[in-house]
């Protein structure tokens, strides 16, 4: 009488397959992290480009200058009318008695880990790569918290060209360039 052999895997075969899977996973993690970093970087670029478009459009629509400013650690930005009432002291909402009506106020942060530098000025080197963020509304709005990057005039132009470089760990830096006189925006990835 012939006995049937049972088909199955030995423990050594299972361990060998698991080892191969672990090695392949370990090799793909840096690639996945880099890909995720590029998504965060692109989201930051798109957010600032959108902030510029909002500021420029509002400046033209309302007939008054709008300011785009960055937080000094290079992770948050703010758009509001270029009037001291919107940038000094207490209220983040601006003055209640603004003769031009209440202006647009945007306060946003870049995705976690993304930093930017305006016109080649590096952000604070002492800030951690993955910052812990306080809510923006918990911070008082004063001139010491925000550094003006660009002011859009009522005709949609700016007096200066502006370059904002975005960086995130594991990715090549990307620069967003604003041409002041035309308002055109271009994106360039560093080599």
Strand order of the largest sheet: 3-2-1-5
The total beta strand count reads: 8
> Can you give the helix content as a percent range?
25-40%
Task: Using the 3D structure, state the CATH architecture.
Answer: 3-Layer(bab) Sandwich
Portion of residues in beta strands equals 15-25%
Going by helix content, strand content and strand pairing, the class is alpha+beta
- Counting structural domains, the number is 1
CATH topology: minor pseudopilin epsh fold
Termini separation: 73 Å
Q: For this structure, what is the CATH homologous superfamily?
A: minor pseudopilin epsh domain
Question: Biggest β-sheet: count, sense, barrel?
Answer: 4 strands, antiparallel
Helices and strands, in order, run as: HEEEEEEEE
Shape: elongated
Number of helices, where a helix is a run of at least 4 consecutive DSSP H or I residues:
1
CATH class: Alpha Beta
Mean pLDDT: 79
Stretches where pLDDT is under 50 for at least 5 consecutive residues are 123-143
CA radius of gyration is 25 Å
The quaternary state of the protein chains shown equals single chain
Quick description:
The chain is an alpha+beta fold and 191 residues long. 27% of the residues lie in helices and 23% in strands. It has one helix spanning 11-62, and strands at residues 66-71, 76-81, 106-109, 115-118, 146-152, 162-167, 174-178, 185-189.
């Amino acid at each position: 009488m012939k006995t049937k052999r049972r088909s199955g895997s030995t423990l050594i075969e299972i361990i060998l397959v698991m080892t191969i899977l672990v090695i392949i996973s370990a090799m793909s993690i840096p690639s996945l992290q880099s890909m995720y970093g590029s998504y965060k970087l692109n989201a930051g670029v798109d957010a600032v480009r959108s902030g510029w478009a909002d500021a420029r459009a509002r400046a033209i629509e309302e007939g008054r200058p709008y300011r785009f400013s960055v937080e000094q650690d290079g992770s948050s930005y703010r758009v509001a009318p270029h009037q001291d009432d919107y940038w000094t002291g207490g209220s983040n909402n601006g003055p209640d008695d603004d003769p031009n009506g209440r202006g647009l106020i945007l306060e946003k942060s870049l995705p976690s880990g993304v930093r930017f530098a305006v016109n080649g000025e590096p952000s604070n080197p002492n800030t951690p790569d993955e910052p812990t963020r306080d809510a923006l509304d918990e911070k008082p709005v004063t001139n010491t918290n925000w550094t003006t990057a660009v002011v859009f005039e009522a005709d949609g132009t700016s007096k200066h060209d502006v370059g904002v470089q975005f960086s995130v760990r594991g990715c090549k830096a990307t620069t967003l360039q604003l041409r002041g006189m035309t308002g055109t925006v271009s994106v360039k990835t560093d080599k």
